[in-house]
Design goal:
The chain is of the alpha/beta class and 388 residues long. 51% of the residues are buried. Helices cover 39% and strands 13% of the residues. It is globular and about 70 Å long. It is built from twelve helices and twelve strands. The strands form three sheets. It has a seven-stranded mixed β-sheet, sandwiched between helices. Strands 9-10-12 form a three-stranded antiparallel β-sheet. Strands 1-11 form a two-stranded parallel sheet. Bound molecules: pyridoxal-5'-phosphate (PLP).
Length: 388
């Protein structure tokens, strides 16, 4: 039996894997200690569970356990990385280079830093969503502290050339921060091979619980230091105070372990289903697939239906299929997505865009059902002459 609406919004969030829930359960009321309580076994057991989870998280991205700092999610990790580095490296300069299609977590943090005196360069992207490497190189100044470019885009799935970006960062003697929330768990990410200095990612985008995430902070070559943005008991080696969310962290760790083992197969399976869906839909209405056709997340398909009214199509479709138009954070407003506008799409094309994002629990049957329902909705809109 299909569960309707079919969930194709995995880039917004994922359900907890049942194996993750199972791993978390003992840590709510059985092993409930405070991981910072070092005088008794309740605390030791909690601390031990956090240590195991820290290793699981570090393993997934090729980091050392001492380079992982637990937070409440990617948004907090982004805030800590940008504000923490800005405050730490004020003597070097006040300039950050970022990209116009970043998630709001990055863009709004940059706006905040601008009010404090930061200078921010927002690089444009081409029609596939890539920044221009020559423009990046040119943007670096003696006062540049950091490049902040996302690993993969949440709306269109475009994967940036992170290794090449890292080489530019190294040459310019600036740190590379990447918001890898959409990449970690979906494609191989290795902080050493990719040359990443700081990296934000989140549990609930990879089948772990909500409200927990991590910031990777490089310890050597180069060593990155941050000023804490939440002060208190000195948890997470003084970088992020506050009693650790032990069940959440245990779940995050388990989710990282699972995703590491299943990634290769899941990439292939989801990519095949995604292409099946995309190929069936693009013939409907002169559709345009947004983002990079090659360098793209295997689960993401952002499709513009140019001759149908995007809002009406969404209303029809979401009875059957849970998808998003633009990002979850900006949907609800009728403004076309800023990411799609940055690609140079005209307003009506951007407004008619729908993001399908698949995941671990997506089935053949769900994709067949989705194709049927999108086809019917588009045909019905065309018949009723509801055009964009
Ligand atoms: C979901 C998402 C975030 C925010 O993550 P939270 O853990 O929900 O705070 C940040 N950046 C990107 C690219 C995302 O997809």
């Amino acid at each position: 039996m299909l569960k309707i609406p079919v969930y194709l919004d995995y880039n917004a969030t994922t359900p907890c894997d049942p194996r993750v829930v199972e791993a978390m359960l003992p840590y709510f009321s059985g092993i409930f200690g405070n991981a910072a309580s070092q005088q008794h076994s309740y605390g030791w057991q909690a601390a031990e569970a956090v240590a195991i989870a820290r290793d699981q998280v570090a393993n997934l991205i090729g980091a050392d356990r001492t380079e992982i700092f637990f937070t409440s999610g990617a948004t907090e990790s982004v805030n800590l990385a940008l504000k923490g580095a800005y405050e730490m490296y004020g003597a070097k300069g006040n300039h950050i280079v970022t990209c116009a299609t970043e998630h709001k977590a990055v863009l709004d943090t940059c706006r905040h830093l601008e009010k404090l005196g930061a200078e921010i360069t927002y690089l444009a992207v081409n029609e596939n969503g890539h920044i221009d490497l020559a423009a990046l190189e040119k943007a670096i100044r003696p006062t540049t502290i950091m490049i902040a470019v996302m690993y993969a885009n949440n709306e269109i799935g475009t994967i940036q050339l992170i290794k090449e970006i890292s080489e530019i960062a190294r040459k310019g003697n600036v740190f590379l921060f990447t918001d890898a929330t959409q990449a970690v768990g979906k494609i191989p990410v290795n902080v050493h091979e990719d040359g990443i200095d700081l990296m934000a990612f989140s549990s609930h985008k990879l089948y772990g619980p909500k409200g927990v995430g991590a910031l990777y902070v490089r310890r050597k070559n180069p060593r990155v230091k941050l000023i804490a943005q939440i002060d208190g008991g000195g948890h997470e080696r003084g970088i992020r105070s506050g009693t650790l969310n032990v069940p959440g962290i245990v779940g995050f760790g388990k989710a990282c372990e699972l995703v590491m083992h299943e990634m290769a197969d899941e990439m292939k399976r989801q990519c095949r289903l995604r292409d099946q869906l995309e190929n069936a839909l693009v013939i409907l209405d002169d559709c345009k697939v947004n983002g990079d056709p090659q360098l793209r997340l295997p689960n993401t398909s952002n499709i513009s239906f140019p001759y149908t009214d995007g809002a009406v199509l969404m209303t029809e479709l979401t009875k059957y299929v849970a998808v998003s138009s633009g990002s979850a954070c900006t949907s609800g407003s009728i403004e076309p997505s800023y990411v799609l506008k940055e690609l140079g799409l005209e307003d009506n094309i951007a407004r008619g865009a729908i993001r399908f994002s698949l995941g671990r629990f997506t089935t053949e049957e769900e994709i067949a059902f989705t194709i049927e329902k999108v086809t019917a909705s588009v045909e019905s809109l065309k018949e009723r002459k509801i055009v964009g």
